[in-house]
Design brief:
Mean pLDDT: 87
Number of helices: 14
Radius of gyration: 21 Å
CATH superfamily of the largest domain: Glycogen Phosphorylase B
CATH topology of the largest domain: Rossmann fold
Number of domains: 2
Largest sheet: 7 strands, parallel
Shape: globular
Number of strands: 13
Low-confidence stretches: none
Distance between the termini: 7 Å
Structural class: alpha/beta
CATH class of the largest domain: Alpha Beta
Length: about 350
């Protein structure tokens, strides 16, 4: 095992960034062989890891960035380079193993009906296809995403496809019964495919409950305004767009349940985060949620508001404690031991 360069120029609270945080924290080899690449402005954050750091002013998705990576690979003699699919990178060196991380194919699978969206999807398709063909390993976060990658880019173009859990549950948090709780939480960036608008059906049917929509605003201004204006019409809906991780943990304390109405996900981190906190989960009946939660969640049709309310009502009358225990059991799939085993299988 030789030197490994991890390109960490994407930082924040999203799923991609969390995976790269795990790649650093749970690296199975000698930490002295691990080198991080980051932008100058984020140097202070990565200093906390106590690892070797290379800084640059170049942003990930550029030709200059691609040339820079090849320079480091050729002259710094890295054995592995791990980088995410926000990068456009053409590998010029054959001596290094490139690990290309693709969390999902959202921008290809969920194309809006306008020419800009179609053009973006087309460009992404060909650029990802090119990089996948050059990569030694393609890394993703769920069986669902792996299946979509194979269906979209053909197995013959993919050398080796691996799955790495995007979350680690070190321990679960036991808490009091939820019968007296009154908060319904939904967690995730405000985006059309997250389908937060469906939550207003629950808020309207149950005015005695508080519906908290937690997540920063996305890039779709029209959808942002729709959610903001509709939330203002419902006194029992709180739109919380500036919550830290500790704020979210505090909100879990008063939560009756977490409701995720997504139409598309590559994984669904809030489902496991809620179960870790002892909060039962209701979520969309989509393949990836079925994969990660199995029988530990209560499902509904995210496109049918009547069905959402019906299933939510049925959930409230069930043995909620049994779903909490099922959630705890489900979290065992995301232990540090499982991640370490997956990681070793990728690197060694």
């Amino acid at each position: 095992m030789g030197k490994v360069l991890i390109d960490c120029r994407l930082v924040g609270s999203g799923g991609v960034e969390r995976v790269f945080d795990l790649l650093i924290k749970y690296y199975p080899g000698n930490s002295s062989d691990l080198i991080l690449l980051c932008n100058h402005e984020h140097r202070s954050f990565f200093d906390n890891f106590g690892l070797q750091i290379i800084t640059t002013h170049l942003k990930p998705m550029s030709v200059k960035s691609s040339l820079m990576l090849d320079y480091y690979v050729s002259f710094k003699k890295f054995d592995f380079v791990i980088f995410p699919n926000a990068h456009f990178h053409i590998a010029l060196s054959n001596s290094t193993k490139f690990i290309y991380f693709v969390n999902d194919l959202f921008h290809i699978d969920c194309v809006e009906r306008n020419w800009r969206s179609y053009l973006k999807a087309l460009v992404l398709y060909f650029s990802i296809r090119l990089i996948i063909k050059q990569s030694t390993i393609v890394l993703t976060i769920s069986e669902f995403s792996a299946k979509r990658i194979l269906e979209t880019f053909s197995k013959k173009n993919i050398n080796n496809l691996k799955i790495l859990n995007p979350i680690v549950v070190e321990r679960v948090k036991k808490r009091s019964l939820v019968k007296a709780k009154t908060d319904v939480l939904s967690i995730g960036t405000i985006r059309p495919h997250k389908n937060q608008y469906a939550l207003f059906a629950i808020a309207k049917r149950y005015p005695e409950l508080t519906v908290k929509i937690i997540g920063k605003m996305g890039s779709d201004e029209e959808y942002n305004q729709l959610i903001s204006k509709t939330a203002a019409l419902h006194p029992n809906v709180h739109l919380l767009t500036k919550c830290s991780d500790s704020d979210i943990d505090t909100n879990f304390e008063s939560a009756l349940c977490v409701v995720q109405c997504s139409l598309y996900e590559g994984f669904g981190l809030p489902v496991i985060e809620a179960q870790r906190q002892g909060v039962p989960v209701l979520c969309s009946d989509i393949p990836v949620f079925r994969e990660i939660a199995k029988e530990s969640a209560w499902y509904f049709d995210p496109r049918d508001e009547e069905n959402i309310v019906k299933e939510f009502t049925a959930f409230r009358s069930c043995d909620i404690s049994s779903f909490i225990n099922k959630g705890y059991e489900n979290c065992s799939k995301y232990s540090s031991d499982v991640l370490a085993s997956q990681y070793r299988d990728i690197i060694f």
